[in-house]
Amino acid sequence: ELASTHPVAVSIVAEAKKRELKLTRPTEVEEISGKGIRAVFPEGTVLCGNRSLMEMYHVDVDGYDNEEYGTEVLLAVDGRLEGYLVVADVVKPGAAGAVEQLRNLGLVTAILTGDERNSARAIANQVKIDEVHAELLPQDKLTHLQDIRKKRGSVLFVGDGINDAPVLAGADVGAAMGSGADAAIEAADVVFMTSSVEAIPQSIEIAKNVGKIAIQNVVFALAIKFLVMILGLAGYANMWM
C-alpha cells in the first residue's frame, strides 16, 4: 500500500508504522482502478484489494467469510489468499450537521462510492444521506452522476480520491478536499482549503450571496443608465450626469 494515495491505503500504512512493522517497497507496482494493487516482491506476487480483484486473478475466496462492517482489503500471495483487513469509515465530526444544512438549503444528497454496500448504507443512515450508490468503479460513478443530473438537475460533486477525478471533471461543479489526491485536486473546479465537511454548505451559501450581489449590481447599474437616458431624451441630463 506504500505506493497508493487511496485513503484506505494511507490508513493501513499509518497503522503499520504505528505498530513499528518493517515496510519494504515492492520492485514493481500496478494500481488497478477500483479494485486494488498488484505488487511484485522477492517473496512473490502480492494482490491487495477487494473481492473483485481476487476474482479477476482467479484467487479462491470460498473459505473467506467476513461479517464485519467496513471496507474489506484482501491479501493474496502467488494466487493464494493469506488474510484480510477490514477498515471501517469514521464519520467526520460535523458531517451530520453539514448534511442537515444542505437539506435546509433545499438540496438532495447522495453518496457515490466504491465501498461495499452495507458500509455505505451504515454511513448514509448515520448522517441521513438521501441516496446511496455503492460498489461503483470510477466510470460507474460518472454514469450514476449523469442519471442524478437528469433526475434532479445541476450536480455539485465533492471528492478526495484518485478514483473521483473523472466524476469531479464531469460534474456541473467539482469540488475537492484540500487533503485529497493530486489527481482529484487537478480535476476539480473548486478546492476546499480545509477537510471539514462544513465547508460545503458554507461555500454554497457564499455562492448564493455572490449571485445576489452580482444581480443587484447589474440591476442598479442598468437602472441608472436608463434613468440618465430618459433624462437625456427629455433634455435634462448634462455631460456631468
Report on this structure.
- The structure is a single chain.
- With 241 residues, the chain is of the alpha/beta class.
- It contains 8 helices and 10 strands.
- The strands form 3 sheets. The protein has a 5-stranded antiparallel β-sheet. Strands 8-9-10 form a 3-stranded parallel β-sheet. It has a two-stranded parallel ribbon with strand order 6-7.
- The chain is elongated and about 95 Å long.
- The N and C termini lie far apart (70 Å).
Keywords:
241 residues; 21% strand; single chain; 10 strands; alpha/beta; elongated; three-stranded parallel beta sheet
User: Helical region count?
Assistant: 8
What does the radius of gyration come to? 25 Å
Query: What percentage of the residues does DSSP assign to strands (E)?
Result: 15-25%
Silhouette: elongated
Helix percentage: 40-55%
- Alpha-carbon distance between the termini? 70 Å
Structural class: alpha/beta
User: Tell me about the biggest sheet?
Assistant: 5 strands, antiparallel
Number of strands: 10
What number is the mean pLDDT? 89
* Physical arrangement of strands within the biggest beta sheet: 1-2-3-4-5
Low-confidence stretches: none
> H/E series, N to C?
HEEEHEEHEHEHEHEHEH
